[in-house]
Amino acid sequence: MPQYGGAQTNEKRGDTSYGLPIGTVVPWGAQLGTALPAGWLICDGMAYLANLYPALFAVMGQAHGNGTHYANGTTTGFATTGFNVPDYRSVSLRGHNAGSTPDPGPRSAQNVGGNASGTGSFESHAIQGHWHVVYGTVRGGRYATIPPPSYLYSNAGPPSATFYGAQGRAVLTGANGAVRSGKESRGQNVSATYLIRAF
User: Fold this and answer.
1) Predicted model pTM
2) Which residue from 36, 58, 95, 151 has the least number of CB within 10 angstroms?
3) Contact 152, 132 (CB under 8 A)
4) Nearest CA among 122, 111, 117 for reference residue 73
C-alpha cells in the first residue's frame, strides 16, 4: 500500500482509501490526536447529520444510532435526520451470526435508535454458568477449604454441596504462577483506535 504522501493522486479520482468500500472498519495505530487520513472517521459513537456523509449513511443507515444522542447520552438536536458511527472504544468485535447459531444474548442497541440485534447491537460482559468441583471440608457454611492458598466463596453450588456467602468470589490458586485478578475477564490485548471509511 502506498504511503499517505501518494494519496493525492488517488484523491483527485475521489478515492482516498485505496479501493476499500465505504463502511470498512480498520484498526489504526496512530496516537490519539493525530490528524485522521482523508475519508475516515473515528469509531467513537459520534453523531453526524446524514447529509454530511451520504455515502456512509447509505450503507450503514442508523444501525449504530439515529443521531439524536451523542455516545455520552447528551442530545444532539438532530431529530432523526442523523446517525451515529459505531462506538468501538474498549470493546471487542463479534461476527454477526448471519443465520448461524444465535448469540445467547441478550443484546441491545448501543445508542438511541440503533439496532437491538444484529449489526451494531451491543452485548454486555458475562461468564457462562458452570460448576467447579472442589474437594475439602466446609467451615461455618461459608468456606470450602482446599490446599492453601486456594478457596471457594460462593453464593450457591451444585445441589449436593451448596456454599453460602455474602458475595461471589472465585477459586484462586497460585499453582500456575501468580494469580492475576481484576475487575474484568480478558485476554491479553493491545490498544488501538478503530476507524471507519466515510467517503
Assistant:
1) 0.70
2) 95
3) yes
4) 111
